[in-house]
Design brief:
Helix 1 (3-14) crosses helix 11 (173-186) and helix 2 packs across helix 3 (41-54). Helix content is 42%, strand content 12%. It has 348 residues and is an alpha+beta fold. The strands form three sheets. Strands 1, 5, 6, 7 and 8 form a five-stranded mixed beta sheet that branches. Strands 2-9 form a two-stranded antiparallel sheet. Strands 3-4 form a two-stranded antiparallel sheet. The chain has helices at 3-14, 26-36, 41-54, 58-63, 66-73, 80-95, 104-107, 115-126, 135-144, 154-167, 173-186, 205-208, 269-274, 278-281, 335-344, and strands at 225-235, 240-241, 244-245, 256-257, 260-263, 288-291, 297-300, 304-314, 323-324. The protein binds a DNA duplex (10 and 10 nucleotides) through helix 6 and helix 8.
Length: 348
DNA sequence: GTCCGGTGCT
DNA sequence: AGCACCGGAC
């Protein structure tokens, strides 16, 4: 049996009864698809019901106040969906006589309708053979066929769309589309796929390799944050400095560093003098401050760019916890601090 | 805490 | 291509 027939057999046994699956009314299908974007069935279902009840037709929704629509949407999140929903209802009601477009290309023009939703409505309401590709489809196809192209790359988006389209049942595209998404949602789940009972467990490439959890591949898009670090490099008459353990979680936990002040932006000397350094300087007076590096030293980590300044603070006497500068190389520290120590040499 | 997920905008 | 938008599951 081929992929689509196995899938449809699985679906006929395992499908949930959901109200948008027993209608071909484009309005209700569109409404359900907008609600279900970025939203699980369990969370979206009560909203779907209340929208259908409050606004049984696209004209009812078009005639509503935006505030009332937003109120009904309250709690679902991504509120631009509700604003787009209302705008599209008004457009369909007034410009299209209440008739939704019946094909992928025209559906795509509607506000709030992207590639997935246009394909979904075209197939569910108009029986067009346009394959849907949502998060479930990416997961199922990448695992069953062992496709490692990142799903959030332009190559991956094209590749998965083409594969989905090649697998679709052209005789009954609506059922096929429902089936593959339901399968991804119920059986081929992100964290705990039920492989032992899976109809594809004899052909699934990911299962053969034991790599279900590694697929689909996503490019790490952890955005790089810019942070501004100011290290306070104290020196006293006895050749001591303050060097302390970084105990907070995150980078460099349990490594040693000079006292650190993180700021919102890069500081010049007068900014620095405005800072409230009370917690660092309460036992330390008088002092003289100079900036070691006028240009920020930029230290790059995978997810952070640290713009760093080293402030040299001379003072006659430091508190008891101060350590001899001669000993600081013995402490574990970051490359950033180590490079500074090697470069600055503390005038030695 | 981290992961998950479509569309619109730039 | 990168980011903003939100709430829930785990």
């Amino acid at each position: 049996m081929d992929f689509k027939n196995k899938l449809k057999r699985w679906y006929s046994i395992n499908k949930r009864n959901l109200p948008w699956r027993v209608t071909t009314d484009p309005y209700r299908i569109w409404l359900s698809e907008i609600i279900l974007q970025q939203t699980q069935v369990k969370q979206g279902l009560p909203y779907y019901k209340s929208f259908v009840k409050t606004y049984p037709t696209v004209f009812d929704l078009a005639n509503a106040n935006e505030e009332d629509v937003l109120k009904l949407w309250q709690g679902l999140g991504y509120y631009s969906r509700a604003r787009n929903l209302h705008a599209t209802a008004k457009y369909v009601a007034s410009e299209l006589n209440g008739k939704f477009p019946d094909n992928y290309k025209d559906l795509l023009q509607l506000k709030g309708v992207g590639d997935y939703t246009a394909s979904a409505i075209a197939s569910f309401a108009f029986n067009k053979a346009t394959a849907v590709v949502d998060g479930n489809v990416y997961r199922v196809l990448s695992r069953v066929f062992g496709i490692e192209t990142p799903i959030n790359s332009s190559a991956g988006i094209k590749e998965f769309k083409a594969i989905a389209q090649s697998l679709i049942d052209t005789k009954d595209p609506a059922t096929y589309n429902q089936a593959i998404m339901e399968f991804g949602s119920v059986q081929c789940k992100p964290k705990t796929p039920d492989c032992p009972s899976c109809p594809f467990n004899t052909i699934c490439i990911a299962l053969q390799k034991g790599q279900q959890h590694l697929l689909p591949v996503k490019i790490n898009k952890t955005k790089v944050k810019t942070k501004y670090f100011n290290y306070l490099v104290f020196r006293d008459a006895k050749g001591q400095t303050l060097f302390e353990k970084r105990t907070q979680k995150g980078i460099w936990k349990n490594l040693y560093q000079f006292p650190l002040v993180e700021t919102e932006k890069s500081l010049n000397i007068s900014d620095f003098e405005q800072l409230d350094l009370e917690p660092y300087l309460k036992d330390i007076l008088p002092f003289d401050i100079t900036l070691y590096n006028a240009i920020d030293k930029i230290h790059k980590l995978s997810h952070q760019h640290l713009h760093t300044k080293f402030w040299i603070i001379d003072t006659p006497e430091l508190p008891k916890k101060a350590v001899s500068i001669k000993t600081i190389r013995k402490y574990p520290t970051s490359v950033l601090i180590n490079d500074f120590i090697n470069e600055f040499k503390f005038g030695l």
